């Protein structure tokens, strides 16, 4: 049974939403850096000492040896990070709870800075864009109720149908 226009639009919309969500995540990588070289406001991943882990567990209930967050402030003896303390529920529109934590510099064993990996993101964007265009073309083509039946009841010449809309440029 052929699909209706509404079914194709629904399928296409789902794929486009999925593609948009995947693209919003991007392709990130973590690059090791010294704490002095990390600018304020950077997204970081910090490996904490066992002492800092125990202190955070007792003080704010955060049980993590590695924390992901934003570097808010740094001085000679401590750093202030904003980290996710609790995730929102699975429903749309909920917010995560972020906690500001201060950690002694001596308890930060390693810091990695989160940066966008441009080549992987471009390849991913190209792949998703191609998939979106193909899905859209298929949805438009399959969901067209005004398309006449092929002559003699046989299969359509799909090559002609595809090439009609493509301009040919010769150099």
Note down, in words, how this protein is organized.
The chain has 171 residues and is α+β, with helices and mostly antiparallel strands. The protein has helices at 5-25, 50-60, 118-142, 158-164; strands at 28-33, 43-48, 66-74, 78-86, 97-104, 108-116. It has a six-stranded antiparallel sheet. The two termini are 45 Å apart.
Spatially, the strands of the biggest sheet line up as 1-6-2-3-4-5
Strand content: 25-35%
Poorly predicted tracts of residues: 157-166
Helical content band: 25-40%
Shape: elongated
Structure classification = alpha+beta
* Computed Rg: 26 Å
Counted beta strands? 6
Element-by-element helix/strand order: HEEHEEEEHH
- End-to-end separation in angstroms reads 45 Å
Task: Please summarize the sheet with the most strands.
Answer: 6 strands, antiparallel
Q: Report mean pLDDT, rounded to a whole number.
A: 75
In short:
This protein has four helices and six strands; from the N terminus they run αββαββββαα. With 171 residues, the protein is of the alpha+beta class.
Descriptive labels:
alpha+beta; six-stranded antiparallel sheet; 6 strands; 27% strand; elongated
Write the layout of secondary structure elements.
Elements (H helix, E strand, L loop, with lengths): L4 H21 L2 E6 L9 E6 L1 H11 L5 E9 L3 E9 L10 E8 L3 E9 L1 H25 L15 H7 L7
Helix pairs in contact: 1-3
